[in-house]
Sequence to fold (576 residues):
Amino acid sequence: MTHRWRMPEEPPGSSWTPGAGLEPLVARLLWHRGFRDDAALLAFQDVRMTGLHDPGLLRDCDRAAERLLRAAVERECIVIYGDYDVDGVSASAILFHVLRAVAPACDVRTYVPHRLDEGYGLHVEAIRQLAADGARVVVSVDCGVTAFEPAMAAREAGIDLIITDHHTISGARLPDAYALIHPRDPRGSYPFGDLCGAGVAFKLAWRIATLAEGAARLRDSTRAVLLDAMALAALGTIADIVPLVGENRIIARHGLRRIKSTSLVGLQALIEASDLAGENVTAEKVGFILGPRLNACGRMGHARDAVEMLTVAGPARAAEIARSLTRLNEERRKTERVIFEEACEAAERAGMTGDDRRAIVLAGESWHAGVVGIVCSRLVERFQRPTILLQRQDGHLHGSGRSIDGFNLHDGLAACAGMLTKFGGHEMAAGLALEASQLGAFAEAFTAHANDRIGVDQLTPALRIDCEARLDEITPAAAGQIEDIGPFGRGNPTASVVVRNVEIPRSPESMGARGDHLRFFIRDGRREMRVVAFGWGERGRELRGGMRVDVVIEPKINRWNGSERVEAELRDLRAV
Fold:
């Protein structure tokens, strides 16, 4: 697909000088990202854990922590009620381990609804059953902010319901819970609103720990548990695609560092089964290797197995579950490919891929409800428009949606709320349900809403470019400093620089078992650099030795067998 190269504004003037000990290329790159003086640069470079906000700033966090600690010490039955994705599973494990750490004899259990049988969120029937089974405190993670009826059921059943969530709050009404912790609670003033569910759970867990010890400075053993909890929070933060800025960047940075040395048996088993033992686990590896395995459990089976692996499972059982997650992930990938091909054909056949219809809304009888969300993301990549895919069953439709930058998916669903039986999520991803009889009307209304808010130019993906560069500026020092800008993800994208008028001295070589990728060199007369082009295998014949091109690349450090070298990962190129 052709990209629109989105060049930065004019470079800094001649009076500007790089600061904060940065290589000129890196300082220029950050200048274009808005860090335009030494103070701003130093603040961005400071990713210490001391930059995390006090959990007590979250409304109801102290009230919730006090109740949970009292319940843990007095051995009241506590149930952690989680979601079935990586964020919810990680959040469940965070609270479980911290409660066990501060009160080893506590009665703490976990509950995860079945994605297909029960669906997302708190359910009245489940709350009543948990009460019948002895629960006195239920704490939700990554769900609950719209659970009005379940909150009433909890109160009627004598359960103290604590809701922790991060999803979009619709309207002024909030559930009548014992406590509600949400970084965007309109009644509070928390300074960072973009925490994911695991991030909110981590904040609550941290407050429980400080209350239990009666001091802000924790014992080494408790601090170690919180560091492991931060590793879990990093999984949720990266997998849930929240902006990797502010607190999220701190959590991801330090959590990723902890993963390699974690004492959590289940996390060790997952890393081993994913062939990542001994490696540095990056945000990219969480997004493409660990996250999909954890998600596969909820999509193709039951997420309670993933929660078991990360909480109570011993080494043998954890290894067994981790291996099963790998198998489920392979099954998920096969199912995904089938649905993707069917959905692409259906979208094109229905005329949903042209300029006049700027959204895709489709339903299929055999589409697996646990996989359609991933397929939505792939259709968004292919057709560059918000996509909703639904499974049809017994006259009802259930499914997921994904969006593009600049279009708020939650607002789009809210505009069509009268046609939906339920919906929830945020601007980039959401879930929904409706009666099959409403599909046509909903598709037209949602598409009209998208047409009004998405310009034709947005249907071609934009390639954001940080700045221009020369090959001789892409030094090992610069590449190392660029690496330190991470972890990369939404809100903090990978570095992307354009190098003009370079030569490809020799024809590219194929890479990969099926030749899906390319490698070649670029040269500007003074320096030559290796470039890796993932997914460019079919375009190899377009490139030949001696041609001159402008390239958009991400500078990287390739580490192999104890050696390091600077190379580039291709984002796009144009013949000069």
